[in-house]
Amino acid sequence: MKSSYKFILGLAVGLTVVLGIMMTAFSLPAVKSGINNVPIGVVAPNDATYDKLAKPLSDKGFKVKHYDNVADVKSAVKERKIYGAFELSATGDLSLYQATAASAAVAQGLNQIGQGVVTQQKAAAKAQLAPMMAQTQDINALKALNAKSAAVDAKTLKVVELRAFPKDDPKGTGLAAGALPIALGGWIGAVAIANVIKGKKQKFFAALAFAVVGGLGLVGVIQFGVGTFDGNYWLTSLGAMVGIAATAYFVLGILEVMGNGGLIIAAIMLILLGNPLSGLSSAPEMLPKGWGFFGQLLPPGATGSLLRDIAFFNGNAIALPMTVLLSYIVVGMILFALGKKSTIVVSETTAE
């Protein structure tokens, strides 16, 4: 039976909708990315100094919190509460405490802002010294002013790295590039299991085996091949196993209930939306407002955050990604248990 023109038109419209979703998901984050409530800290000797630095940062889109001392800042960074912090001393010296492993993009942005503040400080100091140097006739006073001018020229932003990527991958490119393999690899694996493995129980255990072996392999490549990770290999692999299991069982569950039609839903969630909204190349708070959080509710974003938190921050802040991934596993298993597509396929094959 030939396809009707009505069906052809409907298919064309449906594919156009998918194309529109793909274009929106990939282009909007790139065009609209910026600072959207990125949490950072400021250490200042008094409220006036704090307000002087915090207000411009808030205007730029940062979510600024006042910390009493550097020790509290270091704890907050390691606990994943903030991405970094500025310390402005009573003498005006500016220090930046950053964690490149939390987000290389945020660290770079904070560096640029810090350098800009120091440049403004130097310009203001020079403007004060210039008329004094022009008016003084005293040699000793002039020498003192020249010394102050030299000190101003030598002023720099002090950068303290709290958690960096390993030297083999200082910018964390391997983790940023891993968004697509995490999304696409889990989807392909689940589809392969659904179509190659026969029997419902066999598919269930195949997905489990894929999660275990795939997790070990994925982290092995990132840690020993690329050099992005330097944490506990087994714990990080366990996180990857949870992420792959979430994808595999969710896709299997949809396929078991909807058949091949479920592939479209899985592809949209995991690849078209999950990949660009994962925030792995920047940070969830640097994506358009609302999109970053939504991306963390999808397996690729949750898996990426889980791996980052385990590998670099001793498992701090894993509650959200673990909850998200375990929810996908549970929902996927429920759908897999309720679905009958495998039974139907087996019955048809037996009947033939």
Layout of helices and strands, plus pairs?
Layout: H1 5-32, E1 38-43, H2 47-59, E2 62-67, H3 70-78, E3 84-88, E4 94-98, H4 104-135, H5 139-153, E5 158-161, H6 173-177, H7 179-196, H8 200-226, H9 233-258, H10 262-273, H11 291-296, H12 299-312, H13 319-338, H14 341-351
Outline of this structure?
This is Putative integral membrane protein. The chain is α/β, with parallel strands linked by helices and 352 residues long.
Feature tags:
Rossmann fold, 5 strands, 2 domains, 352 residues, 14 helices, alpha/beta, disordered C terminus
Shape: elongated
Taken together, the total number of domains comes to 2
Strand composition percent? 5-15%
Structural class: alpha/beta
Protein name: Putative integral membrane protein
Transmembrane segments: 175-197, 204-226, 232-255, 262-283, 318-338
Keywords: Membrane, Transmembrane, Transmembrane helix
Structure description:
There is one protein chain. With 352 residues, this protein is of the alpha/beta class. It has two domains: 38-161, Rossmann fold (3-Layer(aba) Sandwich); 171-338, no CATH class. It has 14 helices and five strands. The chain has helices at 5-32, 47-59, 70-78, 104-135, 139-153, 173-177, 179-196, 200-226, 233-258, 262-273, 291-296, 299-312, 319-338, 341-351; strands spanning 38-43, 62-67, 84-88, 94-98, 158-161. Strands 2-1-3-4-5 form a five-stranded mixed sheet, with helices on both faces. Strand 1 (38-43), helix 2 and strand 2 form a beta-alpha-beta unit. Helix 4 (104-135) runs antiparallel to helix 5 (139-153) and helix 7 packs across helix 9. It is elongated. The two termini are 22 Å apart. The model is unreliable at 343-352 (pLDDT under 50). It comes from Fructobacillus pseudoficulneus. This is Putative integral membrane protein. The chain crosses the membrane at residues 175-197, 204-226, 232-255, 262-283, 318-338. Keywords: Membrane, Transmembrane, Transmembrane helix.
